[in-house]
Structures are given as structure tokens and as C-alpha cells.
Model the fold of this input.
Amino acid sequence: MLIDTHCHLDAAEFNADRDAVYAAARAAGVQRTIIPSVTVDGLNRLKTCVDRYPGCHAAYGIHPLFVMATKETDIATLAHWLATENPIAVGEIGLDHFVADVDHARQEWFFSEQLKLAREFDLPVILHVRRAIDPTLKQLRRFKLKGGIAHAFNGSRQQADELLKLGFKLGFGGAMTYPGSTRIRQLAASLPLESIVLESDAPDIPPHWLNRGRNSPAELPRIAAVLAELRGLSLAEISAATTANAESVFPLLRP
Done:
């Protein structure tokens, strides 16, 4: 049994065959899935998705790449959803300094406001971080949070250790499957096993065998097998450990 800690099952890419995608993931052994939001406008669509599919859980948040089209008053809307819908986390939130045409100051404001909400509602957070780990760490240290997951982690070992000190697990998925991703693969092989969770990020970050095609949560067992090979462990051991790790971050996942 596996937990997909990051999957956008509500994305438009799955509109034509979402039922089949969900069924294939369940048949492959992915029994629980966390679906993070990216905009306030998508919250109703996400709620419909998690209500329809058993084992799917919502995280509500505003993605840093969407803050330019987001109103400051949307923070109040998000707070209402967090108060009334019993989400598993606040997410997907964070900072992204990879894209040049995004206002970094605006990202920082939305990130800090959502961290305040996570603290207010005593929820873990799901982080999106690209080329912005150090400023993310600076923000996280301002708040006493329940930890969470650094999704698609791609930082240094030192940065990883700092996130672990703050109670975060690190998400590994499709990027780890590429032989050329030496830093990610080295981290996946050497970090404490209790620090790692698995994710598909479907429909994004496809593993190498999909040749840049649409990713799906049914790929998670094969992604887990790559982690098992990197660490010299059995797939059963990786499944048990990463499931326990996800449940430790998100208590609502526990049976």
C-alpha cells in the first residue's frame, strides 16, 4: 500500500478519464492520495474530486505561481475553507524564484499569510519551492508550525537537514527516476529513511519511462521501486516506511 502525497487529480488534464485514472491508481496499490489546490477558484472543483473518490484528501492553498492573478481578499476565502472543510493541510504554498516574471514580494506576502493560517488552524503545510529554499527557510522559522512536506525537493543536503529540523518530510517522485538527476538520487539514497515521502505530482513531473507524457498516480509503485533500488531495500520496506512517514505528517491519513 502506498500514499501519493502530491497529486493534482483535479487537473484539467484528467477531465476525459479521471475515473479510470483513479481506478488504475487504486489497482496499483495507491490507496490514499493528497490533492493540493493551486488557486482559490479551484477549491470547489477540488472538493468535488475528493468527495467523489474514497481515499483522496484535500489540501487548500494558493500556489506561488498563481499569486499574480490572486486577490488579497482571497486569503479570507481560503481561511473560510480551512475552517469549514477539514482539509489535511495548507497547500500548495511557497516560493518560486525559477520563473522570472513573478513578483517575488507578492509571493512572499501570500506565503507568509498562508503560513499564518496554517499556524491558526494547526495544520501542516505542503511546500512548493524552486530556487528559493533559503528564503523559504527564513519564513518558516518565523512561525511555529506542525511541519509538512517539501514537495519535489531539489536542494542541498544542508538545506534538507534544515527542513528536517523544522519537522518537514521531503517529497521524491518522477525526477528521482532519471539517471542524470545525480543530486536528487544521491539525496534519496542517503537521507534518513524516516524523512522521505513519495509523490507522483501527476499530471506533472513524469518519470523517465513516460518520455515526457502525462504522469498519473498509477506510476507511484514503479517510482517507489526506484527508491528501493537506490537504497538497497525491498519495495515492501519502502512502502511501509514512506506510508508511516506520510501518516506522521498528516494524522488524518491514519486508518
